[in-house]
User: What shape does this take?
Amino acid sequence: MKYFNSILFALIIVLSSCTAPSGDIVILHWNDFHSQNLPWTPTAYNDEGHTVGGYALFDAYLDSLENEYPTALRVHAGDDFQGSPVCAVTKGVSQIKILNLVEPDFFTIGNHEFDYSWRHVDSLRRHLADFGMYAANLVDTRNGESALPQYKVFRIRRYPVVLIGLTHPRLDFLTMPENLEGVKVDDPVSSAKNLIRQLKKRGLHTFIVVSHIGIEGDRELAEAVPEIDLIIGGHSHTYMREPEQVNGVWIVQADDQGRYVGLTRFHAEKGEITSLEMDYVETVAGKLKPSKDVEALISAYEEELAEQMDETIGELKIPWVRRSGESNIGNWIADAYREASGADIAIMNNGGIRKNLEAGPVTVRDIWEIAPFGNRLVTFEWTGEELLEALNNMAVKRRHLQFSGIRLVLEDGGGLVGAAVDGDPVDPGSTYTIATNDYSASQAPNYFDMPVPDYKDTGWLDREVMIRAVRENPDINTEVEGRIIYQ
Assistant: This one.
């Protein structure tokens, strides 16, 4: 019976291809929403200061566009988790319940969906989610089989289109190692090639990859697998002024945090995309009424946390702005780490600083949104010799971190020129205590090309340290002060 069903399915595909050799396809896509459930005001390219997004309004825009394009697919390229207190407190349950109302047709799992562990998100997928999660290159380590569905076939006016999910190949770097227990990630190129080869044998010819590997990864994928027709990307939060074509493969992405709905329209003819257009629809507040069901759910979550999160605890005199080199917000966080731990040096990873903050009142919510991961503050020791080697490796690898208690001189495009702790050159024979978060400590081989010794947990979450630092010194006037100098 199973063999007969396979033959019947293949026959249906072939007949569909014969009777519907072309199709006009519309994809409504978004990525890296990062639980931006509430409306927000972008600081970039927003001279008039309008408010955008929030999931209730975003869903209303999707509904409006579907009225215009009734056969459109709703496609999410990953990272809906992480970014808001509600998501952190509920460990992603809030986002699953919201997405159940938004109803994506296809969701590629992103790296931040693993932040509460694979076991957790897999349980949510199985028992709570009403939508499918996909990744063709995520493998169950127990049996070597795919841990998630790899693809889904959609028939739009009888024209068959295959959507394939691919998640980031460096999950081992992008989340805590223990979060990946039970799964491993295969190379996206070989995964795509092998799957497309199998699907072609079944008479399928139009392939859309929904990826969470970043724009550079998408370009490499397009170069290696020209059989792909379109890549809908995520992870790099890329705003694309126009669709890009690499090796005959179209690439699109829709910025982040729900500011825009990506609207990609294309015509497919006998398995080839013959024309394609991509537009951004900005989700400006006031033009549409937010979806009532989504709005009610978000309001219920926010009301539970409002009293705690909306408490004002300080005043920021100068905006906190993230950057790859030394930043004033990075300095402040590293200082808070060092003060709380009593360490000689403190290190903060740039990727753990999740938002800028305008001058003005600082609330508990702001700190949760700056540091949503709930990482733990830890300490370890390096000799001066080890410290200098690690910093030189960091500079050569062009890894960007934030520091307190140490000043670095780096060769632009090269290695370490010099380092001083409290004004004194690092002594190779001395021992230095270093504070950081447990994520950075676990990823030391990626940052420094060397591991750290067993680190000690201080008992503090990073955001607890930051909230206490604001309360103790509420007038904040942090500046860039030359802790990292390039020559």
Summary: The first helix runs from residue 2 to 19.
